[in-house]
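## tool: complex_structure
## caller: assistant
## args:
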Amino acid sequence: MTGLLQLLLLVLTLNNLALLGVDRLRSLIRLITLQGVLLAGVLLALDHILLAPAVLIIKGGILPYLLNRTRRRIGAEPHLRPRFGYGWAVLAGMGGLLFSFWLEGRLPMPPGLFPPLLLPAALTTLFCGLVLVVGRVTALSQVMGYLVAENGIFLLGIPLMSAGAIWFELTLLLDIFVAVFVMGIAINHISDTFESIDVNRFHNLRD
Amino acid sequence: MSLFVLAIGLLGVAAVALLVLAGLPPSMRVTRLANVLGPGCVVAACGLGLAGVFSGPWELILQFSLTWGLPLGEFSLGLDPLTRLFLLPVFGLGAVCALSGGLSLRKTRPEEHNLAAHWFFYVLLVAGMAVVLAARDAVLFLIAWEVMSLAPFFLIDFDDSDRKVRDAAWIYLVAAHLGAVLLIAYFALLWQVGGSTDFAVLAAQEHSSYTSALFLLGLLGFGAKSGIAPMHVWMPEAYPAAPGHVAGLQSGAMINAGLYGILRGFDFLGQPVDAPLWWGWCILVLGLATALMGILKALAQSNLKRLLAYSSVENVGIMLVGIGAGVLGAASGHPWIATLGFAGMLFHMLNHSAFKGLLFLCAGEVQQATGTVAMNRLGGLQKRLPLVGGLFLLGAASIACLPPFNGFAGEFVLALSLLDGASLPTVELQLGLLLSLVILGLVSGLALAAYTKAYGITFLGDARSEAAQHPHVAGWRSLWPLLFPAAACVGGGLLAGRCFELVAPTAQIAAHLPPLAELSGARAVNEVGHILDIIAAVGGAVVLLTAILLLVRCRLLRRRPVECRETWGCGYQFGTPRIQYTEASYSEPLGRLFGSVMGLKITEKGGGGLFPGRASLTISAPDRVRTSLFTPLFEAVERLCNALKIVQHGKIYLYILYILVTLVALLIWGMHA
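## result:
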């Protein structure tokens, strides 16, 4: 199974970098769907048989569906509007990858807790999610950034799960679900009220 | 003790009930109910509290503890002589001000004010003060201190439609919290050194090298609440803005809490006997400066309530002089000065509560009757509001230290303490205390000038405005609560010896003299008690004589026609109220003497020559400490905060970038460390 895990993590890392490089909203949602599927695969490879289908359904099915529906409802522009070039974003993601490897060597971890490559892959996912949040203009793509970051945290949590902690992780999943749901509604309202979901214009609301 | 705890419990229940009432939709019934329930509960609780204070021997030390859910500290209350003495004004004035406030607010319409909320905060203030004085745990003390500091903000902000009132409430809040910050540091440091928040443990600990820093922190923190210069700036803003009964309670009872804190602090930092001399000097000089500044500023005011506020600053200064003399006396082994210094301070504290409460309540009545407390719009009120005028006169005579009233007795004890400064060992101590006596005399004289001005301009002469010409006259039915502090003013003077007996044991305990010196201190107390008895007897005779003369006058005038002419008519055929003395012209001669110290701004136009044209004289006294110290300081802080707005731009993605950068930086730093 280790070989499969390594492969999945490699694909996940590439997927992360790809997330930063795409310029269409639909492709971004597709890549996030793929990430959800990869996450389920990682769980499967780590013998979390029960959790894997749940993650597949939520992260690979429901959340992308919700995102797509919101995208259609608010009539979002098909192209993402980056704050800085895609190349820079990918470079930042690579920087995150390097930093993650550096961190892995430094972090005092009990040996054998993390399977090889899982920790850097999780951290990279986290950083890529944050880069996505910082680097994209529309609110919808920021929501997706949060989702990616959340996936990273979820990956970090997997090895720490003992049998009893599964319920904890399930509630975490539910949290994300609710958060995205609420954000979807919020975006709807914002687009109704302000005729724009460009977060650049939010700063008019500051005190 | 159980009665005292019951009083606190009753205040708590009343607060909950009033909070519920405050949440109900406003209606006449709710407003009336709140205005009965609030003062009623306060009076009942204060009665219980007073019964608790006087139950059992005065020296008895009682303790009451409850466990609470907080990880730190405990709910621990105690009664000892110092607490008992300071509780007297809280409960006494608390009840009187509640009654007076209830009566003056009884015609409030529900759409004007939420009286339930007002009384809720009033109840909290009284409960907060009582718990502060009785707390035997630092955490409980700080919580109660915070309640006591927050509640007045809402009480001052009673007329919240007025912008000036709102500003005053904010100034109060900022000042109260600057003081509270220092106190939190004070108790945190004590806790760190002593390892416990229990007062008994803190008192028993070894005195460390932090003691002097702690002393300064405590002096500044508690001083901010008492209004020691230069932290007095909130007082002249807050009191004029607050309703009369709130200002009375704050000035008569709340500022005492700061002095209580300073006295209680000696338990933790070392008794006055072991205190370094410079502590005493520090308190004495601060006290003298505060007193002198306060009374000079009071003299220059044209707003009656602001004058009273500055006079509170002066009186706090006098009390501090008492503490300073007490510490100097104890530290240099002089029981007479130590005992009488502390006794004078405590006596003056009680007296001040009585007359300042009375004066603020009278000022509140004047405001209610005429709609203003600006003295240049008042005048001639003695004829129209004889009851208020008489009571104000009584309060003014007391605060101006005229025998036989109580103000004289307190300052007399203090003066006796300072007078003995000549027998101290070193020249600087002798000079310092005698010079303090001179300044105390000057302050008392200036207080007399300030209060002849306050009473004379407000109540004598002719009305200066339409409002003063036709005030809403309040009868006995709404003024009777004022009789209690008035009785205290007269009683405190005529029974000065007895009152001193109440205060002296507490002062001896506060001074913590060694046994031998204590005997000599007790002798001092006996002697002074005797002197006070003689003064009281002479005073009583003077009062009796005055009464007899008044009676004779009444009899003589009964069958003769009495003609009323304009006051200060000076033989003019067509005199107008405009030719009277004004508040500015009354204080002008003293302003010439002390103008530079008072920070007076005198604007004189015209006049002079044989045929003078139009002339005008304006005297204003802006608070220099505020304008040249605090205002620039706060403006600088504001500029600094505004400069930080560069990072607060409202761009969410950059905020997230901050988090990311911080996270990464912390990780890197953590890995290296």
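## assistant note: The mean pLDDT of chain B is 89. Chain B has three domains: 1-179+243-262, 274-527, 629-672. Handing back to user.
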